[in-house]
Design brief:
This protein is of the alpha+beta class and 230 residues long. It is 37% helix and 20% strand. It has seven helices and five strands; from the N terminus they run H-E-E-H-H-E-H-E-E-H-H-H. It has a five-stranded mixed β-sheet with strand order 1-2-5-3-4. Strand 3, helix 4 and strand 4 form a beta-alpha-beta unit. Helix 3 runs parallel beside helix 4, helix 3 packs parallel to helix 7 and helix 5 crosses helix 6. It is globular, with a radius of gyration of 19 Å. It starts with a helix and ends in a 9-residue tail after the last helix.
Length: 230
């Protein structure tokens, strides 16, 4: 068992030991226990509220440190990663909140470059920036929480998968991993791709494309019971 799974199991045991009742009277139907990408909260009027969060490594991205990603790319990736979690649930984006803590060494210009990437992605994905938290900190912290909606009881849950189900993939699979293998693990003198091919590999990191439309289509059509993002 991996350390991550062991610790998640520990969280689940703690939640059972200290049960809480939602004051708003809107209990989350899934999320933590089902290990889904997001929680699903029934809010009535035919809709469920979908809530998820994701963190990115900021300036610790391997490709950033190698000079192949810029700060705007990092901000864009943060929103894309969170939008992808919504897509995996079949949810339409509602908005996002961002927590961005910056080191004393970060300039206003550098801060603005990351936030420009954030705002560009929000515009591209129809996912308004609703607020969040920012301020100084000894380390860079870049995290977000995404909100979306889905027709009541129709979210794509991991628990919906069954043995013997057919598995379908959408979009490019493996491009991001190939970029790491090629640019980080391959000596420069052994790289043989054309400039155009290299740019295609990097685009998987620079401009991640979450399958939002595909996820919503699966919910609307009923073609799938479950999904997961890659």
């Amino acid at each position: 068992m991996s350390k991550e799974r062991r610790r998640i199991d520990g969280i689940l045991e703690l939640v059972k030991s200290f049960p809480s009742v939602c004051k708003a009277g809107l209990p989350a139907s899934v999320g933590l226990e089902g290990l889904d990408d997001c929680a699903v909260v029934p809010v009535g009027n035919g809709f469920d509220l979908i809530i998820g969060s994701d963190f990115v490594r900021g300036e610790e991205f391997h490709l950033y440190r190698a000079g192949m990603l810029n700060r705007q790319d990092i901000g864009y990736f943060l929103i894309g990663a969170n939008a992808s979690d919504l897509a995996a649930m079949g949810a339409a984006p509602l908005g996002i909140v961002v927590a961005f803590r910056y080191t004393p060494e970060m300039s206003d210009e550098e801060f603005g470059e990351i936030m420009e990437g954030v705002c560009k992605a929000c515009a591209d994905f129809g996912m308004p920036l609703l607020g969040g938290d920012t301020g100084g900190y000894p380390l860079s912290v870049l995290s977000a929480a995404a909100l979306g909606t889905c027709p009541s009881g129709r979210a794509l849950l991991r628990s919906g998968g069954r043995e013997g189900d057919k598995l379908f993939l959408t979009g490019d699979v493996g491009t991001a991993g190939a970029a790491i293998r090629y640019f980080i693990n391959t000596p420069e003198e052994k790289r043989t791709l054309t400039k155009q091919q290299e740019e295609r590999l990097l685009l998987a990191w620079r401009r991640v494309r979450p399958a939002i439309e595909q996820g919503c289509l699966l919910v609307e059509s009923g073609l799938s019971r479950c999904a997961i993002d890659t």
